[in-house]
Design goal:
Layout: H1 2-18, E1 22-25, H2 28-34, E2 38-41, E3 50-51, E4 57-58, E5 62-67, E6 76-79, H3 89-92, E7 95-101, E8 106-123, E9 132-137, E10 142-146, E11 154-171, E12 176-186, H4 193-211
Antiparallel strand pairs: 1-11, 2-12, 3-6, 4-5, 5-8, 6-7, 7-12, 8-11, 8-12, 9-10, 9-11
The structure holds calcium ion (CA) (3 copies).
One calcium ion binds at residues 42-44, 92-93, 95-96, 181.
């Protein structure tokens, strides 16, 4: 009987470590409702084109880095005038990020501190196949989520994960140049229902003790 109980607890512990639950979002307002305090990088503060093709670019909340040898004119913060004629200037303002991926060429977004949530605006993300975001979880393990849409228009996309994510690898098996802007991350921890409940129980308990 005791042995069974220990085995059960062990199974539960393993499950909670191994399985991160990732919820994806395509609407910024809905994502914002679940992540009330966030900061957004618009790249509008950049005065000149800034490459991360060979040297990683730290923009505060995250760092951008090329994986492999970047193609000319890609993997940079592109400030007007734009390198690519197909740039989504009307949507993404005076500056945005231009990336090209095709296995094994990829690009990483590395969070300054592990984050449970991420949201961004993509443009032309996907060609023959959808742009793949490989999430690396704190403590190990990965998950892949695909940017939806037709691939030739704007697509807002993001996620909230029960396990914090240390980095996102942008990758695609097929040729995929794309643009990304308005990258949002929480500026405070995303509240989890379980810990919120525990906190509430703690406060109630404290009140009960105080009254005595
Ligand atoms: Ca912008
Ligand atoms: Ca430029
Ligand atoms: Ca593309």
């Amino acid at each position: 009987m005791k042995k069974t109980w220990v085995a059960f607890l062990f199974a539960v512990a393993c499950t909670s470590v191994a399985q991160a639950s990732v919820t994806t979002y395509t609407d910024r307002t809905t994502w914002n409702t679940a992540v009330p305090v966030s900061s957004t990088q618009t790249f509008e503060s950049f005065a000149a084109d800034t490459s991360f093709a060979t040297v990683p670019l730290n923009v505060g909340a995250f760092t951008l880095a090329a994986v492999g040898t970047a193609e000319a004119g890609t993997d940079l913060v592109d400030v007007s005038p734009f390198i690519n004629a197909a740039s989504p200037a009307a949507l993404f303002g005076n500056a945005f990020v231009t990336i090209f991926v095709q296995d094994p060429l990829a690009a990483d977004l590395i969070f300054a501190t592990p984050q449970n949530a991420f949201f961004a605006d993509f443009y032309a993300a996907g060609n023959g196949s959808q742009l793949d975001l490989t999430l690396s979880f704190e403590g190990g393990g990965t998950a892949d989520i695909l940017v939806p849409g037709t691939g030739s228009s704007q697509q807002s996309f993001g996620f909230i994960s029960t396990t914090a994510v240390t980095s996102i690898r942008f990758n695609n098996s097929s040729n995929d140049g794309f643009f990304i802007d308005n990258i949002s991350v929480p500026s405070a921890a995303v509240p989890e229902p379980a810990s919120a409940g525990l906190l509430l129980a703690g406060i109630v308990g404290l009140g009960w003790r105080r009254r005595r």
